[in-house]
Amino acid sequence: MMRNQKPGETYPSLTPFYVVDHPEGTVLIDTGTSYEMLQNPEEYGPYGAGYISEFAADEIEMNEDQKAANQVTDLGYDPDEIEYVVMTHLHLDHAGDIREFPDSEFIVQQDELEYAWWPADPIQQNLYVEGDFGVFHSSEYSVTAISGNYDVFGDGTIECIPTPGHSPGHQAVRVELEDAGTVILGADLAFTQEAYETELQPAFAWDTEAAIRSNRKIRNLERTEDAAVYLAHDRDHFEELPEPPESLV
Ligand SMILES: [Zn+2]
């Protein structure tokens, strides 16, 4: 989880995704891990998921109810009603259920789309599973490739903020809520609060220097906007969020 820290120790974590209700449409942020991939990694997509099947498939606990599309349905939304799906990045623990949202518009950084198809770094190659995002090539899926900050509804309530480093087109998402105020979903900007505060990155960060710059950018925003930052894989951050169907408002 952090370079040269606690070798041999494991850190059980989660792969969350988020639903944001907006008067003009419902937004999903990330799509979790693919249940189908875990059932049959070798057959999943043109390049399969050999790495996962070899090293991690047995470590990942997931049942079918935990698929993003099923959880969205359980919350009372029809997956076809999700207006936008914002992808923080396309690693396999965030991009798993893309194919279940053919009626949504996907918002992804251009740099991430380009790199996902041809990751030069052999470690990163294992984290991009074409079975997840290969459907973006199909005309049935709508993808908006963005470069830089992007205001989803044009009203300042949901904004994509580029935070490259963990991956080339990684982005955080700033959400303005009426009572909770400014919330920043930091995704994999850092894996844990400790890593966020100490600027430690995992060994497989795409670009460590860029990751540290992105980390500082979000810490600065956190300070100036008095924001609450939630990292995807920090267990305590996950516990702090209300349990659905309860939510921050
Ligand atoms: Zn992740």
UniProtKB/TrEMBL annotation:
Keywords, alphabetical = Hydrolase, Metal-binding, Zinc
Domain Metallo-beta-lactamase, by residue range, is 14-233
CDD domains, alphabetically? Answer: AHL_lactonase_MBL-fold (cd07729)
* Keyword Ion transport recorded: no
* GO molecular function (one): hydrolase activity
Q: Does the keyword Hydrolase apply?
A: yes
Q: Which Pfam families match?
A: Lactamase_B
Kindly list the cofactors needed. Answer: Zn(2+)
Family from the record = Belongs to the metallo-beta-lactamase superfamily.
What's the protein called, per UniProt? Metallo-beta-lactamase domain-containing protein
Q: Which organism is it from?
A: Halococcus hamelinensis 100A6
